[in-house]
């Protein structure tokens, strides 16, 4: 039996016995792939599966919906106690799957467990068995935007998970690279030297079309995206203003809001396929779907205030936006060679997320001193991971 088949069987086995599983593993260890396999299996058994993830893009990645949508919670809400509306979808689910758990705060996890409890109670009255729960993710990646890690909550410790750790990394073939990524994930600085050779003084705009630039701060990403505008202008492209961004036919963009009609979501990468007199056509990277947005709509919407732009150029991204994605080539900015610049790596898991996005060593180009970041991994995470290992 191959390793992934064994993991799949173990997972199914735990779900039908204990009913609650936490699947962890390094970036690219096939966690999301396992979700697909389990979902398929459970559906074949006639189970109703509710597939969820914290962000729009992570949900799209597994063909699910956001946790907020599943629980009918608006992103701005901080609910404490479940209402009938919050649990209505859960009641019908025989299996709840949550991917990318590291992005969910302890506070929200606590709310989720209360929803599960209420839904189980309702199901019990209907003579149905408790909901099975499969939680998946890697706490070695970026922590939630607000609040503490879910594993630090009381409700994590008392939830009764059985743990399953996926051991083999599939995204990268290079075993030395995987080994050193793992060191960085666990905060071991001796893994940094391995990536030193990929530090390069080359100009960043050498090959912007095929290379993404990963930054820490949004404004640094904006600056590198501006370089792409300058390049497009120099090469004679016709540049238009659309939703306050400058774009041209062929420009790489990334959507920053979830579409009301569900066509795209925050984090979706796309190419401007064509610009006509009336419309702009985007082609999504994820599924090659073509999205048409009216240029007139844009004008009429001017003045409306959104929390973020509808999209930005996609030549440079923050590590936060890149989590969950895979790239062939990336410039990773540690620190710019300009006066008063700050280290771009400022939080736990950030350098690990940046480096582990790239498939091969040859695709990595590091700008700045790889030894500079003083935060690699959270001590809470390292402790949690060690306990997980010894329990397995
Ligand atoms: N069992 C497997 N065999 C071969 N390739 C796999 C397997 N599981 C995952 N992969 C590949 O590895 C990459 C990362 O898998 P993914 O499930 O996204 O990892 P994770 O969710 O753990 O980050 C994907 O390109 C996927 O197709
Ligand atoms: Mg995944």
Helix-strand pattern: HEHEHEHHEHEHEHEHEEEEEEHEEHEHEH
Report the sheet-strand fraction. 15-25%
| Physical arrangement of strands within the biggest beta sheet | 3-2-4-5-1-6
What share of residues is helical?
25-40%
Q: How many helices in DSSP terms? A: 13
Gyration radius (Cα, Å) is 22 Å
Q: List cofactors, ions and other ligands.
A: adenosine-5'-diphosphate, magnesium ion
As residue ranges, the low-confidence spans are none
Average pLDDT for all residues: 92
Number of strands: 17
List the helices and strands and how they pair.
Elements: H1 3-16, E1 20-25, H2 31-44, E2 49-53, H3 56-61, E3 65-66, H4 67-70, H5 84-91, E4 95-98, H6 106-125, E5 132-136, H7 154-157, E6 162-166, H8 175-185, E7 212-215, H9 218-234, E8 240-242, E9 245-247, E10 252-255, E11 269-275, E12 279-284, E13 290-294, H10 295-301, E14 311-313, E15 316-318, H11 319-322, E16 330-333, H12 350-356, E17 364-367, H13 379-391
Parallel strand pairs: 1-5, 1-6, 2-3, 2-4, 4-5, 7-15, 7-16, 16-17
Antiparallel strand pairs: 8-9, 10-11, 10-14, 11-12, 12-13
Helix pairs in contact: 1-2, 5-6, 8-12
This protein binds adenosine-5'-diphosphate and magnesium ion (MG).
The site of adenosine-5'-diphosphate (ADP) has 11 residues, from helix 2.
């Amino acid at each position: 039996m191959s390793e992934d088949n064994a993991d799949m069987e173990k997972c199914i086995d735990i779900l039908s016995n204990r009913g609650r599983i936490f699947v962890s593993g390094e970036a690219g260890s096939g966690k999301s792939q396992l979700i697909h396999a389990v979902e398929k299996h459970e559906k074949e058994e006639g189970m109703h599966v509710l597939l969820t993830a914290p962000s729009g893009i992570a949900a799209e990645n597994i063909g699910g919906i956001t946790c907020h949508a599943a629980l009918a919670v608006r992103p701005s809400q901080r609910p404490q106690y479940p209402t009938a509306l919050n649990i209505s979808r859960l009641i019908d689910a025989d299996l709840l799957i949550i991917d990318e758990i590291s992005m969910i705060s302890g506070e929200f996890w606590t709310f989720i467990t209360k929803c599960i409890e209420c839904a189980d109670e309702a199901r019990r009255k209907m003579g149905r068995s408790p909901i099975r729960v499969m939680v998946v993710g890697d706490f070695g990646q970026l922590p939630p935007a607000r609040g503490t890690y879910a594993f630090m909550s009381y409700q994590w410790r008392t939830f009764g998970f059985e743990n399953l750790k996926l051991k083999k990394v599939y995204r990268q073939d290079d075993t030395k690279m995987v080994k050193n990524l793992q060191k960085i994930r666990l905060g071991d600085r001796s893994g940094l030297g391995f990536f030193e050779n990929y530090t390069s003084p080359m100009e960043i705009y050498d090959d912007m079309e095929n290379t993404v630039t990963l930054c820490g701060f949004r404004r640094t990403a904006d600056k590198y995206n501006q370089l792409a505008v300058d390049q497009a202008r120099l090469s004679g492209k016709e540049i238009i203003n659309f939703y306050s961004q400058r774009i041209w036919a062929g420009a790489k963009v990334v959507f920053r809001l979830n579409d009301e009609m569900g066509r795209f979501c925050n984090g979706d990468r796309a190419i401007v396929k064509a610009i006509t007199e009336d419309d702009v056509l985007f082609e999504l990277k994820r599924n090659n779907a073509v999205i048409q947005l009216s240029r007139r709509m844009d004008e009429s919407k001017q003045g409306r205030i959104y929390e973020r732009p509808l999209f930005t150029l996609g030549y440079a991204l923050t590590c936060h936006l890149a989590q969950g994605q895979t790239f062939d080539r990336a410039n990773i900015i540690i620190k710019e060679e300009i006066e008063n610049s700050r280290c771009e790596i400022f939080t736990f898991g950030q350098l690990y997320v940046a480096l582990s996005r790239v498939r091969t060593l040859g695709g990595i180009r590091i700008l700045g001193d790889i030894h500079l970041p003083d935060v690699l991994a959270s001590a809470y995470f390292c402790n949690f991971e060690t306990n997980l290992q010894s329990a397995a």
